[in-house]
Amino acid sequence: MNRRTVLSMLGAATLFVSGALAKNPMVGGKEMFPGKNIVMNAMNSADHTTLVAAVKAAGLVETLEGPGPFTVFAPVNSAFDKLPAGTVDTLLKPENKDALVKVLTYHVVAGKWSSADLKKRIKLGGGKAELKTVEGGSLWAMLDGGFVVLKDEKGGTSRVTQADVFQSNGVIHVVDSVVLPQ
User: Fold this and answer.
1) Which of 127, 146, 149, 151 is least enclosed by beta carbons within 10 angstroms?
2) What is the radius of gyration, based on Cα positions, of the chain?
3) What is the largest CA-CA distance in the chain?
């Protein structure tokens, strides 16, 4: 083999390996890295700017950067837009921090629950699985056409639109609606 052939083969191998490594999930148009924590990855997602602003306002950044593991049902910006007009602005006010913390921690479950784990638990529970949230309330996970759907304490539902975005300290499941505690 001549030098040009070897260099060409090395270049092809490099492209193959770098392509294989770039297969991390994309969320909000940005690659999510399993070696980064929940906050670091969420900050890169264009679809989660409202969630990140809320986490910062609630003072939960340090907690969600912690070792966990956490399962976060992460509402996209359009999920917050579904709330009654003015709700997000009201929750982001310093005097409403306790209410904001309650809503955000209602989206977090202790442990690392993959979609396969959730589906197994749903089947074992006869079609429904109760999930205890960090907030102290309950969410109920069910299946609808193969998708995991959450039901909150007020009867609202949220569909997991992208599952299993693994992080260094847990997993994010992207959801299409904000779930609300009692």
Assistant:
1) 146
2) 19
3) 72
pTM of the predicted model, to two decimals?
Answer: 0.83
Distance CA 51, CA 80 (A): 8
User: For 25-175, CATH number?
Assistant: 2.30.180.10
Mean pLDDT value across the chain: 85
Phi–psi pair at 35, nearest 5 degrees: -85, -10
CB 28 within 8 Å of CB 44: yes
Beta strands across the sheet bearing 157-167: 108-110, 70-75, 170-175, 157-167, 147-151, 138-144, 129-132
CA atoms within 13 A on the CB side of 141: 27
Residue 133 φ then ψ, to 5°: -90, 160
Tokens 């003072």 map to which residue?
59
- 3-class SS string, 102-126: HHHHCCEEECCCCHHHHHHHHHHCC
Give the pLDDT of residue 84. Answer: 94
Higher pLDDT among residues 21 and 87, named by residue: 87
What are the CA-CA distances from residue 66 to residues 58, 73, 152, 158 (Å)?
15, 17, 26, 26
